[in-house]
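Just curious: can you write whichever protein you like plus the matching structure tokens?

***
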Amino acid sequence: MANRTTAALFLGALAAASSLIPCIASPDEGTKSLVGTWKLTGWTLRVVGETTDKEPFGPNPKGRLVMTPDGYWIVIITGANRYPARTAEEKVALFDSVLAYSGKYTIEGDKITIQVDMSGNEVFTGPNQTQTRFFRIDGRQLIVRTPEINSAALPGKKIIGTNIFEREQ
């Protein structure tokens, strides 16, 4: 049940971020510095007004972000302690511990806008197809965060999600 709530928090954060309009930018040095493969090293959610961050998929989530030179973003994130599912309940829990989507991205300044074209959850269809993120590079780390958004899982609360990736290639 905790995995469902955590996954719902994150998916709510992603869905709420979709209301921003994409910006079109031509490839530049900032874009080139993002192209490659990035390994997830951390993922936290902050509920605005609270002091403790939440770890939606536990303290050691697994994940990878691939950004291609022709503007495609592909991300998959899973919980750290996954196991083969044998029952319907285990399959639901396993589904709740994975996030995956892809699409074309554009960059303007420190803002990445992704037009989602496929995902592991239909939460990314319709008005939620546009995902907005802010980023910064710190050495070999890429820090990606959502804007402050309304939480679908916590009505009346706002959240900010942050992913930390380390460059692989």
